[in-house]
Design a protein that fits this description.
globular, 6 strands, mainly alpha, two-stranded antiparallel ribbon, 9 helices, single chain
Length: 271
C-alpha cells in the first residue's frame, strides 16, 4: 500500500482523508437523527436549533485554535497557502469548543436540561470513521506516531516504521463505545453523565497517546521549542515535554472529573 491513499472514482482522484471525513459527518449525523427518534428529547425546536448553532460555531473555532496551537508552523504557511487553514484542526479542540458553544447558546436561550448524551455515539462513530481517513493518509496527515520496532508499526510513507496512532485510537474508541453501552444499561446516570464520561475518557486518551507522537511541546519555565513542520519526515522525531494539546487534555480531565462528582441541585446524586 502506498500513502497517501487516493480513491479513483468515476474519473476523479479523491484523497482517502476527504472521503472518510465526509463519510464521518454524514454517518454521524444520520445516526444522531435515528437516535433522536428512538429517544425524543424534551427540548423544543428553538432550543435545539440554538444548541446546534452553538455547537457548530464553537467546534469550528475550537478546532482551529487548538489546531494552530498544536501545529504553529501552519499559521506561518497561511500567508502563502490558504489551504493551511484547512489543515489546522483538532478533534479535541472541536469537542471542547463545541461544548462551550452549546453551553453559551443554552444559557442565552434559557435551556437548562443537559443535551450531550444523545451525541455520544454519533460522535464516537464519526471519529472512528474519520480516523480511518487519517490512517490511510499516512505520515503527511500529521497524526501518526514516532518511529518504533513495535509489532504494529509500519511504514506510513516515509520509509520509517511508525506507531499507527490513528489505528490505536480506532481500537480505543470501539472499546469505549462498548464500555459506555454497558454502564448506560447497568447504572443509573444523571442526564449528561454519559457525555461527561465520554469526554473524560477521550481527554485522558489524548493525553496518553500524544507521548507516542512527534508534536510541538512546551516546557514549564522554558521558551517554546523550535517549531518544525510536522508534515515532513525529518520533523517526525520525539520531543520532550508536554504538548499544548496534552495541557488542554489535562484541563479537560480535571473539569469533567469535577463535573461528574458534583451533586445534582435539588436532590441527591442520581435522581
Amino acid at each position: 500500500m502506498s500513502f497517501p491513499v487516493v480513491f479513483h472514482i468515476l474519473g476523479l482522484a479523491l484523497p482517502a482523508h476527504a472521503v472518510f471525513e465526509a463519510l464521518a459527518y454524514a454517518v454521524g449525523f444520520r445516526l444522531y437523527l435515528w437516535l433522536r427518534k428512538q429517544s425524543p428529547d424534551p427540548i423544543d425546536d428553538q432550543g435545539r436549533l440554538a444548541a446546534l448553532i452553538g455547537a457548530i460555531a464553537g467546534a469550528g473555532l475550537g478546532s482551529k485554535l487548538l489546531g494552530f496551537a498544536e501545529h504553529p508552523e501552519l499559521w506561518a504557511q497561511t500567508a502563502v497557502n490558504l489551504a493551511a487553514v484547512l489543515s489546522a484542526k483538532s478533534i479535541l479542540g472541536g469537542l471542547l469548543g463545541g461544548l462551550i458553544g452549546v453551553e453559551i447558546a443554552k444559557k442565552a436561550g434559557g435551556v437548562t436540561r443537559s443535551t450531550g448524551d444523545l451525541y455520544v455515539f454519533p460522535l464516537l462513530t464519526a471519529i472512528i470513521i474519520g480516523r480511518v481517513g487519517c490512517l490511510l493518509t499516512g505520515v503527511s496527515d500529521g497524526t501518526w506516531g514516532d518511529a518504533t520496532h513495535f509489532i504494529l508499526g509500519f511504514d506510513a510513507g516515509d520509509g520509517v516504521k511508525r506507531h499507527p496512532t490513528p489505528l490505536y485510537e480506532i481500537l480505543f474508541l470501539a472499546d469505549l463505545a462498548l464500555f459506555l453501552r454497558l454502564i448506560r444499561r447497568r447504572l443509573t446516570l444523571r442526564p449528561g453523565d454519559l457525555f461527561r464520561v465520554f469526554m473524560l475518557a477521550y481527554c485522558a486518551w489524548r493525553f496518553v497517546i500524544e507521548f507516542l507522537k512527534p508534536v510541538t511541546t512546551y516546557s514549564i519555565g522554558n521558551d517554546l521549542n523550535s517549531v518544525q513542520n510536522i508534515a515532513t519526515p525529518e520533523a517526525l522525531t520525539a520531543r520532550p515535554g508536554l504538548s499544548i494539546l496534552q495541557l488542554v487534555a489535562l484541563a479537560g480531565c480535571a473539569a469533567f472529573a469535577v463535573w461528574l462528582r458534583r451533586p445534582k441541585r435539588g436532590g441527591p446524586r442520581g435522581e
